Amino acid sequence: MYTKLLYDYLVDCECCKYCVLRYLKPRYEELLCVEKAFEKRKLGHEKLKINDLNEKKQKLNPCVICFGLFENIDSIILKVKEDERLNNYEIDKFLSGFSLPVLLELTQLQMWLALIEKFPEHISKENTPDVPIKDAIKYIINDRLEKELKKEFDVEGILIGINFSIENEHEALSKLDEVAPELMNERNKQKKRFRTEVISRNYFCKHFTPTSIDITKFQKLIPIPPKVPTAPIKFDEIAITGPTIFLAGRYNKYSRDLSQTPWFVGGKKLSDLSVEEIIVSSILPHFKVSESSVTFMSSGREDVDVRCLGKGRPFVLEIMNTTKTILDKTLANEMEAKVCQSGVVSIRDVQLVKRDDLHAIKSGEQDKKKYYRALCTLRDNDIINEEMLVKLEINESFDIQQWTPLRVLHRRTLMKRTRTVHSVKAHAVKGNYALNNFKICHFEHVLCL
């Protein structure tokens, strides 16, 4: 009996069939076939009435709650399907995002308060009585897009952003200043963060509920239930963005005149190339993105005049808005070969990794012990002797107080920092030269005087 009364009341308020069903607490899959959902609830004999009502409203005024959002699903799907930008992406997955007007949250609150007044024994003041508009539209459109685009819904797919607006929304929401001045005053203190909106969706949903507002005061200023709007919701634009991927590998640097990243001091670039630029220029053409879409990360860094040998230093490229999400072994080898052609940098083990794997890069930077080798010379042409080599063989860790290196003084405070050297071993080379091996902690700068 209650279901039928609720159904009739929502129809009389001029809700569309989707919004009527939302208040009947359907399973999400029932939103895909509204008529069957009504028949299941023995409301099938009213189907014609709802269809006639929808046709009439499409000609006159839209739904009182969703402003005609659900009635325009077909046109939304068609616009997405015909968007030529999707052809730029060789990706068989998609993710959707919706920007809906906050005014829809207000109309849902208006109907919630109306239902509390109409059916006080059935409608709670604590729990919303409907399937939220945003959840419902996402479920319906995602199902349709999977079929129309022949792509799987996945968080790592192309992001299809669909944006809507409602005429005079600002004016309607401004009434909240009178409904709950204490809440809006708190909100207005954050104007610097929210300059373009009266109120955010999250703030509204958190603070404007039947238990937190003066319902009598609300009803004097805002109609309960909501009135039929004079203009429907407006479809603004579709934003297409490729997913973000992470390409990892290891690099070796063979030049003593090459910075890891572009090196600027006082706005002037001090070197023509860097490790980052050589790697990025060889890899980006495959993913068809601009350099501004790429962020270079590595497990630590070496000085300009220090080579990086051995297995190489781990690095990651964060590539945003990529057109591809697959990297086969053959192509990875081609990328490695192209970087190697530079003669000063090589890369290996190139592969795509997950975002969760990035912690290994940063933890390596913090925890890894590193080996450095430096060629040192004695003053006054002294000759290396056995006594010196014995003194330079240190197997126990010790701390040193190191001043900020001159190379980074333009961006770091001049001060002493405690550094740990884990071991030292020296070998005589020729004349007054000694080859010193250091095992040191992270962030260490090797200074040989």
From TrEMBL:
<feature type="domain" description="Pus10-like C-terminal">
    <location>
        <begin position="246"/>
        <end position="432"/>
    </location>
</feature>
<keyword id="KW-0819">tRNA processing</keyword>
<dbReference type="InterPro" id="IPR048741">
    <property type="entry name" value="Pus10-like_C"/>
</dbReference>
<dbReference type="GO" id="GO:0031119">
    <property type="term" value="P:tRNA pseudouridine synthesis"/>
</dbReference>
<dbReference type="InterPro" id="IPR048742">
    <property type="entry name" value="Pus10_N_euk"/>
</dbReference>
<dbReference type="Pfam" id="PF21237">
    <property type="entry name" value="Pus10_N_euk"/>
</dbReference>
<keyword id="KW-0413">Isomerase</keyword>
<dbReference type="Pfam" id="PF21238">
    <property type="entry name" value="Pus10_C"/>
</dbReference>
<protein>
    <recommendedName>
        <fullName>tRNA pseudouridine(55) synthase</fullName>
        <ecNumber>5.4.99.25</ecNumber>
    </recommendedName>
</protein>
<feature type="domain" description="Pus10 N-terminal eukaryotes">
    <location>
        <begin position="63"/>
        <end position="238"/>
    </location>
</feature>
<dbReference type="InterPro" id="IPR039894">
    <property type="entry name" value="Pus10-like"/>
</dbReference>
<dbReference type="GO" id="GO:0160148">
    <property type="term" value="F:tRNA pseudouridine(55) synthase activity"/>
</dbReference>
